[in-house]
Structure formats: C-alpha cells, structure tokens
Write a sequence for this structure.
C-alpha cells in the first residue's frame, strides 16, 4: 500500500539473519525446556538418554545464536560507532519514551486512551526509531542474565571438571558456588541444580508473557509473519505502529512559519 504522497509504506522489519536467529532461538529454547523438564521430573514420553542428547544438541545452537548471531545483527545496524550505539540504545534499552509508552499501555488497559504505537518507522532516517514493545526491552535484559546463569549452572551439571583449552572452568564455577551455597544451607552442586531449574521456570514465564500476553492479539500476529517468514511490515496498518513521513516535520515547520 501507499501513503498519501505515493511513497511505499512496506519496509524491512527483520533481515534474513534476524529471522534465522529468532527461529533457531525459539526452537532451541522449546527443546531445552521440554527435555530439561523431562530430565528433572522423569516424564516417560521419551527416554532419559534421548532427552539428554537432544538437550545437549540444542545448547550450542541457543548459545551461538544469543552470543554470536544476535550481537552481530544488533551491531551491524547503524553507521559508525556513534550510529551503532544510538541504534542499540533506541532499540534495546528501556528509556523515558518507553516509560511513557508503558504508561499509555497501562492507561489503555483501564480504557483510558489509545494503545500507543511501539513500532515507529522514520522515513527520513530510513530506519525504525523503535520496534519493540516496552515490556520486551525489560525482558531482554532479564533474559540475557537468565541465559548466562543457566549456561554457567548447566556446565557443572553436565561435567564437574569441565575444561576449555586446559582451563578448569567447571572447578572455578564450583568454587564460586561454594561461596554462595552455604548461605542457603546447600552444597555447590545443589545450589546450581536449583538455580538451573529456577531459570528454566523463568524462561517458561517469559514465553507466556511474550507470546501468551503481549502478542496474543490478532492485530499483532502480523509480526509473527514478519519474524518467521517475510521480514516485512506494512505500516499502513496503524495498529501499534507509526510511520513518520520524510517531509512531514519540514512541512509542519513551513506551515508554522507561513502563519507568522
């Protein structure tokens, strides 16, 4: 579709590497949750060895996506060091504008005002000002922390004396756990087992919030198509989105000047 001045309103929301990263992340996370709970609870829908094998296969995919591909995608946007920092801040850091949007979302819940746009594309700049729900900007930080904790705890649950290039990573992790665990009257391995399980429950909670609450709305389903398939967003659909046209601000200033 076109805007009133015949400019296209269909833009690239996600690159091919963005879509690959999100798809692999989603599949790996689901496999890890299911197999992890199978290992912990002893569900009998598959054997322990199969669950453990699938769990260990999914781990490197999840870590590679989150610690290599996603950072690459984030910092490949923007021009120059300052542009990349600005892009990262606008898209992934919860700021004052996000607080304002979140306030509007809460007001909308109580039927006071319109649900604010959280997907804003600036035609003049040629990129999004923001495209994440403000709650997701909070969840991203918490997810990154949870991912680190579940990876660290998973190392010693997999192998107590795990090493990399001769470095005793497993022993170091156990030593740190040995400092914290006594505070809870636990051994280091008990502490890490509980921590690993708690982080699993966190990811389940996040999945419910992300999919079951924030995006369980027919007007948001367009983003599923974009993230998993097309990569495109049609900003003529104004549900949760805003399209700032290239000359709109210039025209507004010109009109203001003519009036005076």
């Amino acid at each position: 579709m076109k805007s009133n001045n015949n400019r296209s309103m269909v833009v690239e929301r996600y690159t091919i590497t963005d879509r690959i990263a999100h798809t692999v992340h989603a599949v790996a996370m689901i496999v890890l949750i299911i197999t992890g709970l199978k290992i912990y609870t002893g569900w009998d829908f598959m054997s322990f060895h199969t669950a453990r094998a699938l769990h260990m296969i999914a781990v490197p995919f999840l870590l590679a996506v989150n610690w290599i591909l996603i950072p690459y995608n984030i910092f490949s946007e923007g021009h120059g060091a300052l542009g990349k920092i600005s892009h990262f801040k606008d898209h992934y850091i919860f700021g004052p504008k996000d607080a304002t949007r979140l306030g509007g979302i809460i007001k909308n819940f109580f039927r006071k005002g319109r649900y604010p746009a959280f997907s804003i594309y600036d035609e003049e700049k040629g990129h999004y000002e923001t495209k994440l729900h403000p709650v997701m900007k909070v969840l991203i930080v918490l997810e990154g922390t949870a991912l680190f904790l579940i990876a660290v705890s998973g190392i010693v649950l997999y192998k107590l004396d795990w090493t990399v290039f001769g470095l005793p990573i497993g022993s170091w992790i156990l030593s740190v756990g040995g400092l914290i665990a006594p505070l809870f009257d636990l051994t280091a391995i008990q502490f890490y087992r509980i921590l690993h399980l708690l982080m699993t429950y966190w990811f389940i909670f996040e999945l419910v919030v992300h999919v079951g609450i924030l995006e369980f709305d027919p007007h948001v389903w367009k983003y599923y198509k974009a993230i998993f398939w097309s990569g495109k967003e049609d900003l003529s659909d104004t549900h949760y989105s805003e399209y700032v046209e290239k000359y709109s601000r210039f025209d507004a200033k010109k009109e203001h000047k003519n009036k005076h």
Notes: The longest helix spans residues 48-75. The beta strands are 10-12, 119-122, 127-130, 232-234, 241-244. The mean pLDDT is 88. The chain is about 65% helix and 5% strand.
